[in-house]
Design goal:
Length: 241
C-alpha cells in the first residue's frame, strides 16, 4: 500500500517509482510470452496490433496484449498493482490496455517525447495512469524511461511523426534541463500520469530492453466501443468470470 507521502509525490511530480511488482521468474515468463505471441511462424497478435521498426526488421511495440494473453491480463489486474494505482486515483481502477515496448540491443530506436493522454483524447485530464514495468534490467544505456517532472499539469500539442501514426512533442517547446531517468531492475515498475512528458533513448548497449506498460483508467470512467476496441478489465469482471 502506498503512503500519503508517495501519493503526494506522484501528484506533485507526475511520476512515482513503485518498486518490485513482478518476481524475476514472472518477468522472464512475460518476455517469453511476448516472443511466442509475435513468433513470425505462428503469430498470435494481429498485424494491426504491432508497430514495427522503419525497415520492418523488428517489432517496436505490441498493443493490447492484456486482451490477447492470459499472462499479460493477470499482470494487468494484479491486486497489488491495482491497489497502488487505486490509491493514486483515490478510487478503483480498471486496466484499459497494455503495451510492450521492445528495444533490441544496439538497434532499439528512441521514443520521442510525448504525453500518453494524447493517444486517448476521450479521457479526462486526470483519468489515465500508466504503470511501466521493466521485463529486463533498464538503465540509461539501454533506454530507460526519462521524465520531465511537473509536466502533468498541462496538455501540450503533439505532431504526427510519420512512424505508424506515432505522436510527439516538438522539442523546441520543452525545457528538458530537469529530465529524470528512472533505472529499474527486472520486475520493478514506475507509474506516471497520463500528461507527464516522457521519452526514452535508443538502446546503444549489448543488452535487450523490454518493458510492459499497463494503462489504467478510473473504473467509473465510461469508454465506448467507438473510442476503444476492447472493454476495460476490472477486478469485479474478472472475479465474475
Amino acid at each position: 500500500m502506498l503512503t500519503d507521502a508517495q501519493r503526494r509525490s506522484f501528484w506533485s511530480s507526475g511520476y512515482l517509482p513503485l518498486g518490485q511488482v513482478a518476481a524475476p521468474h514472472q518477468a522472464r515468463a512475460l518476455r517469453c510470452e511476448f516472443e511466442n505471441l509475435t513468433n513470425p511462424a505462428s503469430p498470435a497478435v494481429p498485424e494491426d496490433h504491432l508497430m514495427r521498426s522503419p525497415d520492418g526488421g523488428h517489432i517496436r511495440v505490441g498493443l493490447h496484449l492484456c486482451h490477447l494473453s492470459s499472462l499479460f491480463r493477470t499482470l494487468a489486474i494484479d491486486p497489488a498493482v491495482m491497489d497502488m494505482i487505486g490509491r493514486l486515483f483515490g478510487e478503483e481502477p480498471a486496466a484499459l490496455t497494455s503495451l510492450v515496448f521492445n528495444k533490441p540491443p544496439r538497434i532499439g530506436e528512441e521514443l520521442l517525447a510525448h504525453q500518453d493522454l494524447a493517444y486517448y483524447p476521450y479521457l479526462g485530464a486526470d483519468d489515465l495512469i500508466t504503470c511501466w514495468i521493466a521485463l529486463d534490467d533498464v538503465d540509461l544505456a539501454n533506454g530507460a524511461v526519462q521524465y520531465l517532472p511537473g509536466t502533468h499539469r498541462t496538455a501540450i500539442a503533439h505532431e504526427r511523426t510519420g512512424q505508424q501514426q506515432a505522436l510527439a512533442i516538438n522539442p523546441a517547446s520543452l525545457d528538458d534541463d530537469n529530465t529524470v531517468s528512472v533505472a529499474l531492475t527486472s520486475g520493478e515498475a514506475v507509474a506516471h500520469h497520463g500528461l507527464t512528458v516522457h521519452r526514452s533513448a535508443p538502446n546503444t548497449s549489448s543488452r535487450p530492453r523490454l518493458g510492459a506498460a499497463i494503462l489504467y483508467i478510473r473504473a467509473s470512467t465510461t469508454v465506448s466501443a467507438a473510442d476503444f476496441p476492447y472493454p476495460a478489465l476490472t477486478r469485479e469482471a474478472e472475479d465474475r468470470a
